[in-house]
Specification:
2 helices, two-stranded antiparallel ribbon, 5-stranded mixed β-sheet, Ubiquitin-like (UB roll), alpha+beta
Length: 93
Amino acid sequence: MKASAGSFIVELARSGRCFTVTEGDTILGTLRDAGVDLAYSCEEGICGACEVKYLTGVPDHRDFVRTPAEHDERSTVIICQAGCKSDRLVLDV
């Protein structure tokens, strides 16, 4: 489940690769379909295995691992559930 309506760009900072996450897709699903190797487990936002740092952008947190304040303090996002409130989300991947 993608948290926010519309599409957005996810950029992987270490490689510079960019991907469009379309409405109805997840960040994790989009990256996995593109062959990006990432850690994940439950895909339901409860285990935290897919938590990654983000560098810029405004994530729309929809997981049960941390509070939005905790995510903001840590600059992390759970990519199996999060959407994006901005046009682009840059991940430290």
